[in-house]
Amino acid sequence: MDSTSSNTPTSTSQPDWARIDASVKVPVLFFIYAAAAWLVTASVLGFIAAAQLVQPAFLADCAWTTHGRIVPLARNALIYGWGFNAAFAVMIWMVARLCRTPAPKWGATLVGGLFWNAGIKLGMAGIIIGQSTGHFMLEMPAYAAAIMFVSYGIIGAGVTVIFSRRREGNMFASQWYALTAMFWFPWLFSIAQYTLVFGSLRGTSQAIAAAWYGHNVYALFLGPIALGALYYLIPKRVGRPITQYPLAQIGFWSFVFFGSFGGLATLVGSPVPAWVQTVGISANFMLLIPVFAIAINLGVTLLSGSKAGGSGPALKFFKLSVLSFVAVGGLSVVLSMPSLSHTIQFTFVGEALDQLHWYAFASFAFFGAIYFMLPRLIVRPWPSGALVTAHFWASVAGAIMIIGSLVLAGFAQGAAINDIEGYPAFADVVAASSGYLVALALGYLTLIVGHLAFFVNVVMAIYQACFSKPSDSAETVFSAPAAMEVNS
After folding, report:
1. 411 and 446 Cβ atoms separated by less than 8 Å
2. Gyration radius (Cα) of the chain, Å
3. For residues 3, 4, 10 and 15, what is the CA-based torsion angle, rounded to 10 degrees?
4. Which pLDDT score, from 0 to 100, does residue 168 have?
5. How far apart are CA 226 and CA 90, in angstroms?
6. How many CA atoms within 13 Å lie on the side-chain side of 16?
């Protein structure tokens, strides 16, 4: 990992960017389309789950739509459907660009993507009919997980081939994060499946393994790819290199090491060994190191280049993503402190932190990356600026409403749980937080509007790419990269 050459390309010839983009166009567009479709599905399911918290009788007459099945359906659609498909799209395009080489034949990668999404559909069908494993983030039955594991291997093999043919000798921070995430997830997934789904662990060990895996889907896969996208695209969008680039190595190594243990802090107050809880709390405190380093790299770069970068949708999402990353790091430390976790543990506050991880940080980074790269893949601007604006503001408003309502409901819930005299029955505890959950349902309704706008815009863009020829002006704008394109 050469930090000294982060802004100096070793190749003297300009790569054929149009050829590189064309080599990954079909699979990347497929992953973007699939991600957008799953995003709408996840937001609809999330609204149903939120509505059931306010009105428990909503869709409760059918076993397939009870709250215990809708919640894992929404979570799996968001993480494995939207998150992973978006991550695949960003990773493939970004690695091809950074390696300065066209991808080989894309047929195998596309087949892997088709089977990945088929595996998700099969797994969600298994959850609907009552075959859930019951483990957090691993609810899909083993037969669906096997399909997903093999298809992931096919997709990862395609990325590995691209990297093996690279023409750029240096490795950049974006590649550290993306490639590390690509190789880590199969390890995480296989260990979690073996220890939890196939039952080699018993008792409280299951809770430890589930917390470790559920957190590391973010910390060792979605988070690193989101950071890789930010490291790659923010300099291009603002027109200047990363500030204090040598800090990127410190941020990378400390993030992947300490981040992998942070999930154990969610076990505070549960019947697991005290040292396990302490490891999680300590890891969250140590995460302040990468948060500080990455905030300098990305935050200062954004601030110093904000005037030159303008205010397009990609840059807006990048700014919010970086802000959310810093907020996640700070809140993880504060909320894991024993004095506070005693009140908020096992409340909606934990779900609020998950939403800040998965949506406000990772998803906003993916939104910005898609808004940047899709026009370059189809050599056209986005079909509708109004839909872009609607998506941005609905996503921001929905995220604020969801995270804010969950935090308020969680603190009200925690205070009621710890006040036995004032709230003698659990029904009283539920009533204490129910008012805030109305805003949660409204937040999901707002997200549905924004995600539908995003999905429609993606479909229109792909349709135009398939059935119309780009204008000469569009080819000039999107085929010729900006100066920062060579300074990765």
Report:
1. no
2. 22
3. 50
4. 67
5. 9
6. 7
> How many residues are present in the chain?
488
Contact present, 195 and 209 (Cβ < 8 Å): yes
Distances (CA, A) of 229 to 94, 246, 247, 371: 7, 18, 17, 12
Q: Is the dihedral of CA 339, 342, 346, 349 positive or negative?
A: negative
Planar angle of CA 351, 287, 403, nearest 5 degrees: 25
> What pLDDT is stored for residue 306 in this prediction?
57
pLDDT, greater one: 56 or 399: 399
Neighbours of 147 (CB within 10 A): 19
Non-local CB neighbours of 385 within 8 Å, separated by 6+ positions: none
Burial of 299 (0-12, 13-18, 19+ CB in 10 A): middle
Are 216 and 188 spatial neighbours (Cβ–Cβ below 8 Å)? yes
- Please tell me the number of Cα atoms within 13 Å of 48 on its side-chain side: 20
206 token code pair: 């299951």
Query: What's the CA gap between 299 and 396, in Å, rounded?
Result: 19
Tokens representing 199? 């039952």
d(CA 332, CA 316): 24
d(CA 295, CA 228): 14
Q: Tell me the two tokens of residue 420.
A: 């036995």
In angstroms, the CA 156 to CA 151 distance is 9
The CA distance from 29 to 348, in Å, is 36
- Here the tokens at position 19 are 């050829």
Asked whether residue 11 carries a pLDDT value surpassing 70, the answer given is no
Name the band, by pLDDT with cuts 50, 70 and 90, for residue 470: low
**Residue 123, amino acid:** G
Q: Do 406 and 368 contact (CB within 8 A), yes or no? A: no
Give the mean pLDDT of 395-409: 94
Instruction: Please give the structure tokens belonging to residue 445.
Output: 């309704």
User: DSSP letters along 150-209, please?
Assistant: HHHHHHHHHHHHHHHT-S--S--HHHHHHHHHHHHHHHHHHHHIIIIIS----THHHHHH
Place of tokens 């889907």: 217
pLDDT more than 90, % of the chain: 51
| SS3 label, residue 379 | coil
For residue 123, give the nearest of 193, 214, 215 by alpha carbon: 193
Q: At what angle do helices 385-417 and 364-378 cross, to 10 degrees?
A: 160
Other Cβ atoms closer than 10 A to 337? 14
